[in-house]
Amino acid sequence: MNAMDLSNHFLIAMPSMHDPVFGGTVVYLCEHNERGALGIVINKPTEITIDSLLERLDLKLEIHALMGRPVMFGGPVQDDRGFVLHSPKGKFSSMLQITNEIAFTTSRDVLEALASGSGPERVLVSIGYAGWSPGQLEEEIGRNGWLTVAADPDVIFDMPIGERYVAAMKLLGIDPLMLVPQGGHA
């Protein structure tokens, strides 16, 4: 058993993190165990829209609410594949149910269901994911790279993308404007 299981938590990049990939991000952790961690960045939109992604897969989007919605940059790992966070409606061939409100699916059948209108109501589609090898995430947290807080599905699915970072910080009771980028020296 992993001493630190942060599945169903947000990782919030510290303001001091100037990493070009993860600076300013909120990552939803789908899985965290002795084999490492897997998460999806929820606040970095790509230029790709859900309808254009589905079109590339020869799927026609029937749901107008999803038209023009951006696909997220989920992370640098397998950034040629789609990953979907969604409300657990239906059973898909490679679905990991994380909570009663959030599931993670990597198989095409969830995109087919979305396109046809029979898919989950709440959805975040990403290209790529964020991955950490065993012990790597714990080390980054130990170096104050990330803040962690229990995830709120409303931040993932309902919050405007530009407000997700501040909303995740507020779950910790922190106003990000009050955080200083560097530690002080006496």
From TrEMBL:
GO cellular component assignments: cytosol
Alphabetical list of Pfam families matching this protein: DUF179
InterPro entries: AlgH-like
Record-stated family: Belongs to the UPF0301 (AlgH) family.
NCBIfam families: PRK00228.1-1 (NF001266)
Name of the protein this chain belongs to: UPF0301 protein NB640_03490
Source organism phylogeny: Bacteria, Pseudomonadati, Pseudomonadota, Betaproteobacteria, Burkholderiales
